[in-house]
Model the fold of this input.
Amino acid sequence: MEPQKIKFNGQQHPEFFAVLTRRVNDFFDEQKIGRHANAAMWLKTIIIVLLYLIPLAMLMMGKADTLWMQYGLWALTGLGMVGIGLAIMHDANHGAYSNKTWINDFFGGLLNIVGAYHVNWKIQHNVFHHTYTNIVGHDEDIRKTIIRFSPKHPFFAAHRFQAFYAIILYMIFPFVWILNKDFEQYSRYSKENLYPRMGRSNRRALIEIIVIKAIYWPTTLLLPIMMSKFGIGHTLMGFFIHHFISGIILAFATQPAHLGDDMEFYSSEENNGSMENSWAIHQLKTTANFAEKSRFTAWFIGGLNFQIEHHLFPTVCHVHYKKISKIVRQTAEEYNLPYKSHPTFLDALRSHFGHLNRLSTP
Done:
């Protein structure tokens, strides 16, 4: 059955987002700066891409002289993979990296070199998650899984232990992605005719997915196995560590932003799909920031600790989020609207796992 179409309440404080947008635009005009990547962002891009490519190249050429060096190189590739996903391709696939389409396409396509299909990501993330945040039946980030993310999801006995097994699932998530997720999404998106909206035919999308996998596995696993001085077992373990590191960091950097004790959840089946809030206010009620004072957190995870600013202004590069966050917070307070934020990263994690624990009972 097709999910109910969503209708946001355009009558609820329509002036809020208009005023906020004007103030953010005025900020960029007054500061005489662009909304896209600056020199610091370009430098970060170089550092992160090299953090992934150099260790991987050394593994592919068998340059690890000690076992600990081999494991260290695999760990670095995991960190580089996280950086590419959170701090580079994320902005680019939102059109926030540059005002030039080809630059956004190039850096957005970096997702392909780590084994995932960037067009599927854009459909899942840009279309379904950003538009329908925390709406069961539309937001693909909370699709029904063996983790109960929303109180709108049915309860099953296995959910009683989800606060414990969630960590394991987060760690293996990259394997699911590179092995099966892209093909599973292709099966659904092709039937829903979503690829033509992204400038792809169904056939081209499938070919691109197959080519990405056909390149990823030989270069990232088979070559390191062939060139390693320490045998298949240690190489496989390093490959697993690479993905475990990326999986847990990706989850911890993104899940607390929408899945916490203070988040609100909705269902497309309620009220014939009519939401009580406008789209912008819906984002405030379903999103939270964290660790706003931590420069390292903002640098490494692409400013996604300023998730509110990202959801309201996804085409603004994340290097500007901290500055415009003051404007967003002030405007929300003027309209008596929530602006949710956890002081530290640990507070955000406590909220997330407290949420999972709360949903572990009927």
Remarks:
- The longest strand covers residues 288-290.
- The chain has one domain: 14-358.
